[in-house]
Amino acid sequence: MTLNRPREQSTMLQTFTVLLFCFRLSLGMTSIVMHSQPELWIETNYPQAPWENITLFCKSPSRISSKFLLLKDKTQMTWIRPSSKTFQVSFPIGALTKYNAGLYRCCYWKETGWSEPSKVLELEAPGQLPKPIFWIQAETSPLPGCNVNILCHGWLQDLVFMLFKEGYAEPADYQIPTGTVAIFSIANMTPESEGVYICCTHIQMIPTLWSEPSNPLKLIVAGLYPKPTLTAYPGPIMATGESLNLRCQGPIYGMTFALIRLEDFEKSFYRRRPIKNEAYFFFQALKIHDAGHYLCFYYDGSNRGSLFSDILKIWVTDTFPKTWLLAQPSPVVQIGQNMSLWCPGQVDGVGLALYKKGEDKTLQLLDTTPIHDNESFFLNNVTYSDAGVYSCHYLLSWKNSIRMTSHNTVELMAVDKLPEPSLSAWPSIMFKLGNAITLQCRVSYPVLEFSLEWEERATFQKFSVDRDFTISNAEGKGTGTYSCSYHIEAHPSIWSYRSEFLKLMGPAGFLTWNYVLNEAIRLSLIMLLVALLLVVLWIRWKFRRLRIREAWLLGTAQGVTMLFIVTALLCCGLCNGVLTEETEIIMPTPKPELWAETNFPLAPWKNLTLWCRSPSGSTKEFVLLKDETGWIATRPASEQVRAAFPLGVLTQSHIGSYHCHSWEEMAVSEPSEALELVGTDILPKPVISASPPIRGQKLQIRCKGWLAGMEFVLYKEGVQEPVQQLGAIGREAFFTIQRMEAKDEGNYSCRTHTEKRPFKWSEPSEPLELVIKEMYPKPFFKTWASPVVTPGARVTFNCSTPHQHMTFILYKDGNEIASSDRSWASPGASAAHFLIISVGADDGGNYSCRYYDFVIWSEPSDTVELVVTEYYPQPTLVAQPGPVVLPGKNVTLHCQGAFLGMRFALLHEGNQIPLQFQSPSGNSTDFFFHTIGAEDSGNYSCVYYETTMSNRGSHLSKPITIWVTGLLLKPSLLALPGPIVAPGENMTFQCQGELPDSTFVLLKEGTQEPLEQQKPSGFRADFWMPAVRGQDSGIYSCVYYLNSAPFAASNHSDFLEIWVTDKPPKPSLSAWPSTVFKLGKDITLQCRGPLPGVEFVLEHDGEEAPQQFSEDGDFVINNVEGKGIGNYSCSYRLQAYPDIWSEPSDALELLGAAGPAAQECTVGNIVRSSLIVVVVVALGVVLAIEWRKWPRLRTRDSETDGRDQTIALEECNQGGERGTNTRSPSSVSQETSVELPVPI
Where is the chain membrane-spanning (predicted)? Predict the structure, then answer.
């Protein structure tokens, strides 16, 4: 019995969708991710009769797309390819007729293929509105009280939406939304909310024109019955193709049971009638997509449901992940010790079993609980019988056909003494002159330390942690017999048995090839030298015998002979360098590219042309070959360095494998990748390739399809559906695996097909096996000089690794171009040097290297981009906001090139590698420096280069210097003869610094580039400016910086403003405290100019001569006899140029008072003056009264004696001190008498 598939139960699915959503969070599940669907709707310009003119609109939900597809009744298709990527497109339908009525959906193109189709739009006969669709959307609130949103899609805008519930004549709710979707909310679901709902629409202006009712939607409230139990038979982990039975059992008889897979509940809803109180869901042939999380529930005849069962996870796999067995602390155990075998299981819920080779039954078991890191198999009190080979396997309690991958094994050794190691010599057991031998002591498990013994010398002993010992043969003392031993960390006091003896021998005479070659060269050069000396002596003897007197002839002969002698000596001196460790790169002619073109996209075989293109600009002609031997044709290279080979209509004679070569003057290239034509109506077979996969890293699989405009599909062996799909993006596609893991291993292939239906497919490519292998870490790869070089330069690549005795391979643009020979490497060598003696324009590209040791390879190194310059015009480099920057500020270097689509690099003098790379879409880019520091000072330049043709680059830009100021004391800047200079005169700037032997720079505000730089021997630099002009006016400053690292620069000097003019600028004139004179007060006029060291003069209207001169610009003006009133102006002259006066300032008017008292007689002054007058008058009256009383007071005083006078004087004094407020005549008299002289 098989399952009823989802489409047969669409009504029941809608019934229980709300139940699933309301329970989702209570089960601990995260939100279910649905594929984004496009939106499809109708627009019309006849609102009262929409069927008269219909346009369908399709909109992608969240991204722009390059093409859209409209589907009708699953058979007819309409394409829209907008001129630019957009969010939505329109499909004009026109008037609705019986011919264009039907079911419509739309899709849009994504990076990984076509999107999910939109919801189905049903267009019926004219005169009817489209039938709305009805679905639910639950909120995140769990039960009880689940909130439900019911959505009704009416396809047209400005419709009235009605929600009806079965059994009620009136609508339950209605809405008039602004769009095409109405949302009806049912809050706090209760049993009263249950029922069957439908949705209808009508046009606002025509209430009688209704649409067909939507499909009914039945809502129920779940959780009225207890939850069931869900179990799997034979087990939850099965292989593809096997059968599986899921049993859902509840406590109540007669219920209907349902099963749901949470990963895709809309397409995996199964219903089953019960057998008593349980139901069985049978999967006859499991597939990979059947794996997931399952749950079940049951419901009665009124659709009242139970709670959900617990989630059951089902695994469907062909292969279990590999298990690993590790021995702790070591696989070598001393008798009587304890140890553990750790087997980390990677599948939860599956037990593990420990096996020993040669025994059928399991030794130990670990249960099916999740395996933790601290759970292991333990072996206590190890004996000799415990030694052997152990492995760890998954333990399943049910039968299945899941393939177990190979398990690693651990060989356990129980010893009273450690076993002997193996000893070998590299590169051989025979010494060569000047070379050493490395002895390698090997065991298969971790070792604490190795020891090397020399039998001929009892006291000789060497120790090593990395198992390698270097033996030299200086003075013939390295030959002899050697052996090694070791001890492990678990038993540091127990040393192993010694290895077998290994004998090292000296060279058999001197018959090594290197020695013979060098000695032969030396001997031949010595013989040549002796022969040339004899020739010189013979010439001199012959000349004397023949009595030849011409001195010039003798000198010429001797000179020619001596030239040969010097040449021989130079060769003799260089003969020792015949064998070098550098590997010269014989750069192969670049491999050409082969592809096909056609003018019949749907049937390419009707007219096919093969094209061959070379990245080398020196290619002369191309050759096309078939089946590696058959000569097809030769074509000369065009200006685009390519050639066409027309094949015409494909026939059986054309079937075969094609490749092409490019010919240069002295060389022929490697063959291109083979293009295989497999049939007269089948696309050429693509080629698939990928770099070695690395665990946890991104991997790109390249599929080359030969024809442009094809679509690409990637397949994996064992998976029926395509793994990835890519649209028409050229002649090749790159499929990406974001993170390579064990599950991604396998055999992959790719196919291509035409872009439009009916699809025409290619043959599958050859399979590509992806296996994650153990690899050495990537090597360190660099160039000894900068990778940005000029043509003819010498470039050396250095590829190194800490591992020893490796073979190195050099790659350019992914192709192997050179390798290092281990026979030339000295013992222990861990580096290889690849040399390009003279770089050409085609030598640029992306270089990398790898190394290997027999079967184990390393990861690829980082890429070095070699750029060959002087092919394109020079770019310009500008610093913004300027080249002089304070520490901590930001600087942008703008590089402007001449062509689009180039890659830019920024270079810093003193750094070998470029600082930054940019690949902009335009012809310029910006390099940013944030919080710049002293180390960023220096000279910068930029270059741009193409990335498709051997990295051919431009000339370097003109260098620009960046100074980071504020690190040294600021200098002083002085202008001679002064800051004001007449046009045509000469002037000099003197910049005085604090440190000698610095570089001084003159700057002008508003100018990017420095005006001038000098490196004087002292503390001062003089910048001479001859014949200055008006544009030389401005604000100047200077800085200085150190000539060596860290290139620290000073602060700016004080700014100095320079005027190039015949007339200095006019000054300003102001008055203090005001421009109005006050009685008895002076006014100070302040004249201010822009320059120091000047003399000011003040002029008064009406006076022929200047009134005053001042050096500080202050003039004091008084208004004696009204002469200070009037208009004033001032001017100045430079002390260095007393004949040059500035223009006068603007006039300033001083005002005086209108009469002596008018200005000062304010209300306050009048009040104060009146009070003074009153007080003076009152005092005069009092004095007059007292004066009249004076004679009587004098008479009475004369009649008293001295004592009375003394008493009276004391009383008078006391009365004066008390100071009463009333003034009686007697008191006035007493006060008056006190002031008189007293007779004694």
Answer: 520-539, 551-570, 1166-1185
Strand residue runs (E) in 616-710: 621-626, 630-636, 642-648, 656-663, 675-677, 687-690, 699-704
| 177 touches 62 (CB < 8 A) | no
Contact indicator for 336, 385 with CB cutoff of 8 Å: no
Last-in-domain residue among 1123, 1152, 1181: 1152
Q: Could you give the angle at which helices 1225-1235 and 1163-1188 cross, rounded to 10 degrees?
A: 80
pLDDT in tens, 605-626: 778 888 898 877 778 888 888 8
The parent domain of residue 720 ranges over 687-770
251 Cβ partners below 8 Å, 6+ apart? 225, 226, 228, 277
State both tokens at 975: 């202008």
Listed residues 264, 287, 318: the one ending a domain: 318
Model confidence, pTM: 0.39
Helix (H, G, I), strand (E, B) or coil at 352: strand
Q: What are phi and psi of 442, to 5 degrees?
A: -125, 140
Q: Mind listing the pLDDT tens digit for each residue in 899-934? A: 888 899 999 888 878 889 888 888 899 998 888 887
User: Look-up: residue for tokens 């005849």?
Assistant: 301
Phi, psi of 811 (to 5 degrees): -120, 145
Rounded to 5 degrees, what are φ and ψ at 388? 155, -170
Residue 1024, strand partner residues: 988
Does 991 score more than 90 pLDDT? yes
* 338 Cβ neighbours under 8 A, 6+ residues apart: 378, 379, 380, 381, 382
User: Is 360 in the same domain as 376?
Assistant: yes
Burial class (CB in 10 A: 0-12, 13-18, 19+), 696: exposed
What is the DSSP secondary-structure string of 783-794?
A: ESS-SEE-TT--
Task: Provide the pLDDT confidence category of residue 843 given band limits of 50, 70 and 90.
Answer: confident
Tokens (6 digits) for 977: 């003869």
The Cα angle at residue 691 between residues 689 and 693, in degrees rounded to 5:
115
DSSP of 846-890: EEEEEEEETTEEBPPPPPEEEEEEEEEPPPEEEEES-SEE-TT--
Instruction: Kindly write down the DSSP assignment for every residue of 94-144, as one continuous string.
Output: ES--TTT-EEEEEEEEETTEEPPP-PPEEE-STTSBPPPEEEEEE-SPPSS
Q: How many domains does the chain have?
A: 9
